[in-house]
Each structure stands twice: as structure tokens, then as C-alpha cells.
Specification:
Blueprint (H helix, E strand, L loop, with lengths): L1 H16 L2 H4 L3 H6 L11 H29 L6 H14 L12 E4 L25 E6 L2 E2 L2 E2 L2 E7 L5 H17 L9 H14 L11 E3 L6 E5 L4 E2 L4 E2 L10 E4 L2 E4 L3 E4 L2 E5 L4 E3 L8 H4 E2 L30 H22 L1
């Protein structure tokens, strides 16, 4: 009996020590094991589940943007506080509470120059988000075992800084150049080459430090790796020369990272099909206006209000309206003061 217990404990410790990529069944393994119900390799349940997980990720991004606007309006919020609220909103709307897609990343200011955010705090730490910060928000939901992976970048209060704006537009335009080529048969590395060439032309080549994207499904990082290189430690994937296939779900996520200052990444999700693709995150804005969070971004009535005990009543310094009793008392006091003055004069 004791031997059996010891073996069980050891096995539990071994499983817990496995890297997430090893502990998670990948898309390729499902294909090899005949896991898809459709002879074409496309699982309707998979696609519908991913569509729903992408919808929940959109809710998470909208929550993130509104909370960053609250910072602009005076709220004091840490990266962790914002990440926790994002997770709460996605779970409340249907994301798996026990098996997250991955830990939500809220990386502000210099932390945004680290692709996965604060490394000592699982991507979202105690740093207070400040007005003027560029903030990278990378999140995903899970529905029926299938995940999403969506990133948006924001600047709290907007900016006129030419470097920040140029970097954002370089990432945005690099994405747009790849979209028409997302279809079954396209070599995964070709998309990376197109986006990377554009970012290099804009002067940020050395700041694009990871692959263009990756597959996702049960795991958030699965083949194919959209890279012209040999591997990508950030995604935990190795290079392969397989073309995009009709059962692939992929991300397109170019990024630019200026060490010690800011990072920018925009990540969108696609289902690959024979004709071209399904742009699942098309309804979630990603243009320059969405990037810049200005005071008029939301209804001012939604703005953060400090606790009651911290508020200053603007009326406390105004004259208090007097009733009849108060007026009579004041008249009496004035008469009493007059009598005393007359007595003193005598």
C-alpha cells in the first residue's frame, strides 16, 4: 500500500513538472490519433468553440481598454488588478475558470518591451499603470477545450510621439500585408518574410524579436510556426516547412520592442480554409484611434469615483440656507451685541 502511494505521489510530481507544451495535447497529435470527427480534418465543434473563445477574448480587450481609460480619469490600477478584472469578465461570460488559455498579460511602459510582460509576476505585476504608458494586453479564453489568443496595444492618454506612432503603424501595416495570403497551401514562413521585410523598411527590424505567429487549438502555442527562422523559444515551437492547412487556426502578431521604453504588438486570430481564411477578430478594432485612449473615449459618467470618505463636498464652502428659527436667533444675538455695546459706551 505504501509503495503504491509513493508511486502515485512521484507520478503527480512528474506531471506537475512537465512544461505546458508537453502536458497539452497538440493539434498535430489529434490528427495523428484520428481525433477529428470530420474526414476533411475540420472539426465543427472546434471551429465553433474557437469562435466563441475569440468572442470572449474581445470582451476581455474591451474591459482592458475601459480600465486603462479609468487610469486616465484618475484611478490607481496595477497591471495585476487590470489582469484580474479581465479574467473575471471572461470567466463570467463563459471562459473555463479552471483551465485558462494562458495567464493574461498586462505589460505597461518598460514592461511592454518584454514580449510576455513582467517575468517575475506571470506577465502582470504590481507596477502601477501611468498616464502616457504604452500598454500591451495579451489574453485568451477557453471554450470546450479550445482557446483564443488576442493582443491589443494601447497608449493611456494618447500620444504625439513620432517613434511610438511610427512603430504602431509599422506593426499594423505589416499585419495587413499578410492577410490576403492566409489560405491553405501558403508556406508559413512566407508570411513572416513579408511582415518582417516591411518592419525592417520602417527601421525597426532589430526590434521585431519573435516570429510572426503560430498555430493554436487545445494549446495556445501549436504548429505551424510562422517563421523564416529555425525555431522560436518564445513560442516553444520549431521551424517546419509545412504549408498552412485547412484545419489550422493561426495568429498573426508582429511586434516591436524598444528596451526600457515600450512595446507594441497586435495579434489577430484566423481559421484557415481552402478558399482563404476566416478573420475571427475582425470586429475588434486595432486602428490608431483604438490604440489611443483619449478622455472622450467613454461616457464621463463611467469615470472612476474615489471612496465617499475621500471626496470633497464642493458645497461645504457655500453659505448654508437659513430657516426662520435661525434668522430669529441671529436677530436676537445681534440685538444682544448692540445692548452690550451701548452699556460699554456708558
Amino acid at each position: 500500500m505504501r509503495t503504491g502511494i509513493m508511486i502515485g505521489v512521484l507520478l503527480s510530481l512528474l506531471v506537475a513538472a512537465l512544461p505546458p507544451a508537453m502536458a497539452c495535447e497538440t493539434e498535430v497529435e489529434r490528427v495523428l490519433n484520428g481525433g477529428f470527427p470530420s474526414p476533411t480534418g475540420i472539426s465543427p465543434n472546434k471551429d465553433e468553440s474557437i469562435r466563441e473563445s475569440v468572442r470572449l477574448a474581445g470582451i476581455g480587450q474591451n474591459v482592458a481598454r475601459e480600465m486603462l481609460w479609468q487610469v486616465l480619469m484618475g484611478a490607481e490600477l496595477s497591471e495585476r488588478a487590470i489582469a484580474d478584472e479581465i479574467d473575471r469578465a471572461m470567466i463570467e461570460n463563459g471562459s473555463n475558470p479552471d483551465w485558462p488559455s494562458f495567464s493574461t498579460i498586462v505589460a505597461s511602459g518598460a514592461n511592454g518591451a518584454i514580449p510576455h510582460g513582467d517575468p517575475t509576476n506571470d506577465g502582470a505585476g504590481p507596477k502601477q499603470v501611468q498616464i502616457g504608458d504604452v500598454v500591451v494586453v495579451d489574453l485568451g479564453a477557453r471554450v470546450n477545450d479550445w482557446v483564443s489568443d488576442v493582443t491589443r496595444s494601447y497608449v493611456v492618454g494618447g500620444t504625439t510621439n513620432e517613434t511610438i506612432i511610427k512603430a504602431y503603424m509599422a506593426v499594423y501595416d505589416a499585419q495587413n500585408l499578410t492577410f490576403p495570403l492566409i489560405e491553405a497551401g501558403t508556406p508559413a514562413w512566407a508570411l513572416d518574410d513579408i511582415a518582417r521585410a516591411h518592419i525592417e523598411e520602417q527601421g525597426f527590424g532589430e526590434n521585431f524579436i519573435h516570429s510572426l505567429g503560430h498555430g493554436f487549438g487545445v494549446c495556445v502555442h501549436e504548429p505551424p510556426l510562422l517563421s523564416g527562422g529555425t525555431d522560436d523559444p518564445l513560442f516553444g515551437l520549431s521551424y517546419n516547412q509545412q504549408p498552412l492547412a485547412p484545419y489550422d487556426a493561426i495568429t498573426i502578431e508582429p511586434g516591436i520592442y524598444l528596451d526600457g521604453w515600450f512595446g507594441i504588438r497586435i495579434e489577430d486570430d484566423f481559421l484557415v480554409n481552402q478558399e482563404d481564411h476566416e478573420f475571427m477578430t475582425a470586429d475588434l478594432p486595432r486602428d490608431l484611434d483604438w490604440f489611443m485612449i483619449e478622455p472622450d473615449a467613454y461616457d464621463i459618467s463611467m469615470a472612476f469615483n474615489p471612496p465617499v470618505e475621500e471626496r470633497i463636498d464642493s458645497n461645504q464652502f457655500l453659505p448654508v440656507p437659513l430657516g426662520l428659527v435661525e434668522i430669529l436667533c441671529l436677530v436676537g444675538l445681534a440685538g444682544l451685541r448692540q445692548d452690550r455695546t451701548e452699556e460699554d459706551n456708558e
